[in-house]
Amino acid sequence: MTHRLRRCHISVPGSNEKMLLKSTKLDVDVVIIDLEDAVAPSEKENARNLVTELLQRETWRAPTVSVRINALSSEHCYQDILHLIDHNGAAGSRPQTLILPKTQRSSDLLFVDQLLLQIEARRGLSQATGLEALVEDATGMLNVADIATACERLETLIFGMGDFAASQRINTLNIGDQGGYIGDLWHYPRYRLIMAARAHGLEPVDGPYANFKDATGHAADCTAAKYLGMTGKWAIHPDQIAPITTCFSPSLEAVAKARAQHAAYQAALAQGLGAVSVDGVMVDQASIKLAAPLLAQAALLGL
Length: 303
Known about the structure:
- This protein is of the alpha/beta class.
- Helices cover 45% and strands 15% of the residues.
């Protein structure tokens, strides 16, 4: 699996050229160009053509550009793939990943995987396009462990709480909002998806918090997702980029502490010891496993 920075992913409507051009300058890990929910049915073909053209012409500041294609149940899905991958032959003009919405079972991803394999073979493309599965209904969540094993090009599992709430008839009107629920409304589906992702070497990514003016609620939502084990979170407005990126970035203090623990543990091992005290905290093999993802992210960020 390709290891990418995935702290913040901002979604941009594929039919809005002005917003797409603005997205090329955003300082964010991932730009998601949306051909599905954010595009009116009458504008699907125009949006597809626009996105194909811009991918060939423009360069994004974000290291990863992804496209959310239309669902398999629509007549647009295969055309999206053909235009984005088959028509855009050069590596720099193709999205790094395709996001499949409304993924309900592993066979959904296998269809896209086989189509991509055929295109890549026919065009002699050496760089494979990654896949991301957006799990956003009760059926998909029940099958999430199977979805996680679908194919080698799968990189992430994404929790789409908007459609998930609708499928569960959850009493909320704002995507990501807790409503009047006492506790964490999203705890179980998030945890189920995170476990499936981690068990199969995938990155779990959280969906958006729609009320971008509610900074307090958004911050709480980011924190809850991070502590459960999410790698990052979607944004729907540029104002959400900085708080999401900060939330899912390791602090310099945490990195320093992890490095100190790692160094002390290695020194202890050299003396034949399996545990050591560092600043009053016992550090053993389990502690080092906890620190490993943080240190890997720090290395990726150049901290």
